[in-house]
Each structure stands twice: as C-alpha cells, then as structure tokens.
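TODO from last week: model Dihydromonapterin reductase.
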Amino acid sequence: MELTSPVRPILITGAGKRIGLALARHFLAQQHPIIISYRTRYPAIAELEQAGAICLFGDFSTNAGIEQFALQVKEHCNGLRAVLHNASAWLSESTEVSPADTLALMLQIHVNTPYLLNHYFEPLLRGHGHASSDIIHFTDYVVERGSDKHIAYAASKAALDNMTRSFARKLAPEVKVNAIAPAMIMFNEHDDAQYRKEALNKSLMKVAPGEQEIIGLVDYLLNSQYVTGRTHSVDGGRPLR
Ligand SMILES: NC(=O)C1=CN([C@@H]2O[C@H](COP(=O)(O)OP(=O)(O)OC[C@H]3O[C@@H](n4cnc5c(N)ncnc54)[C@H](OP(=O)(O)O)[C@@H]3O)[C@@H](O)[C@H]2O)C=CC1
Ligand SMILES: Nc1nc2c(c(=O)[nH]1)N=C([C@H](O)[C@@H](O)CO)CN2
C-alpha cells in the first residue's frame, strides 16, 4: 500500500486466528486497507497477505517488542483509521506458572500493549477531523464480576476497561475510544462437551454467537460520530442468569 494512500488502514492486533482474523477478513471484504499483527504465522496469514493486508510480526511479551512493532507500522502508513486491540491471552491461575509470572504476562498483553501502542499511534490517529478515528479495547464480561479462576486476567482486563475512559478523555473529539466486553463468543477447540454445555447455560441466550456478533458492534462504533468512553457488553444477558 502506498504511504500516501487516501484511505487510512485499520490496525488489528493478534489477527492470525479467531475473532481478529474474522475482523481482518471483514474489512478486506469491504476493500478497506488493514494492517495486522501476528505472533504465530498461521496459514491464514498468507491468505491475508494475498488479499492485500499488511501483516507484521508482533510479539508484545516485551516492551521492546511492542516498540519494534509500532515502528514497523509507522514505516507502512502515515495515518490510521482505527486501532483494534484484540491480542490477548486467557491465562488461568495454574501450578505450571507462578502467580507473579501469570500477573506479569496478563498485564503485559492487556495493559502495557494497548497503553504503549495508543501512545505510539496517537500522531497517526489525530489530524483527520472530528470523530475521524477510533480505538477499540477488547475487554471481557468478567471485568464487572471478577473470576475465581482467571484472577490476573480479569484484573488486567479491568485496567484496560479503565484506560478506555482515560484515553477517551485524552483523545476526544478527534478520536473515539470504546471497549467491547464479550462473554462467551466462541469456544476453543479443546473445550469438551461438558464445558460447552455449562458455558452456554450461563447466559439467557444459551448460544456462543460467533465472531459476527463482534464484527457488527465494531462496525457500529466505527460509524458513530458520538459514542465514546463507554464499554459495550456482548454477553447474552449473562448478568441476569
Ligand atoms: N473468544 C471469546 O469467547 C472471548 C474473547 N474475548 C476477547 O476478545 C478478543 C479476541 O478473542 P479470541 O479471538 O478468542 O482471542 P485468542 O485467544 O484467539 O487470541 C488472539 C490472538 O492474540 C495473540 N496474542 C496473545 N498473546 C500475544 C502476545 N504476547 N504478543 C502478540 N500477540 C499475542 C495470539 O497470538 P498467538 O496465537 O500467536 O499466541 C492470538 O492470535 C480477546 O481480547 C479476548 O480476550 C473476551 C471474552 C470472550
Ligand atoms: N484471549 C482470550 N480471551 C478469552 C477467551 C479466549 O478464547 N481468548 N475466551 C473466553 C471465554 O469464552 C469465556 O468468555 C467463557 O466464559 C474469555 N476470554
């Protein structure tokens, strides 16, 4: 993509699989330029490259890795339409990883990464007019109720939720900043039948809706001229169970 492309790309982190990949395919289908980060080079990365996406390696486990990715992005564009902070790891407390390391890993991907990338990309998001750019933080339903098995994960997502309001105040009115707080959207391959049954029973709607539910909300937020600083739940009525 030419640096002078009139259409600013949408940046999606962690877009090699699942929700991030579905978002990447969605915007490519709309002929909107995208830049994605990947850590593992899944087969889908080649598909995205062939479809015209700029796919950049990004390992956010260190601050140096975050900076390296940000500098690569700046070499490929002189403006951004949106930054979708999708990259995440759903770590539970376990005997294999110490509590200190679990907390550090969760804070690194869910706090350090969006915090630093928002600062690196501010100049690329600003300067394009009123409500012309967006940041979307992907948080989680557990921000509002906690989790006894994913304590560090929930705490890090709660920090990300708070940063939504801070960055909304800092960057308005040029840049809107919102959070999407999903509950069960899609299972992981290793989820067994019993887990799936129990997980579906936790919401009123009793389904795992899939990526399209998130895509529709992202499109709504990108098209809004007014909505900012808010967390948008996608939880099937789970709080009401
Ligand atoms: N799926 C669901 O039902 C729910 C999802 N969410 C949130 O929605 C978002 C998307 O969910 P989902 O698609 O399931 O996400 P995944 O768990 O599939 O992870 C998304 C991507 O994040 C990347 N990633 C993880 N750690 C790092 C890192 N240190 N550096 C760079 N990339 C990294 C992974 O790369 P790699 O594969 O190479 O490790 C992966 O491709 C997440 O923020 C998640 O927390 C919230 C609630 C429910
Ligand atoms: N990074 C991820 N975060 C989360 C995932 C996931 O697969 N990757 N999955 C969930 C669950 O679906 C949970 O919402 C079920 O109650 C949460 N976060």
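Done. The two ends are 48 Å apart (CA to CA).
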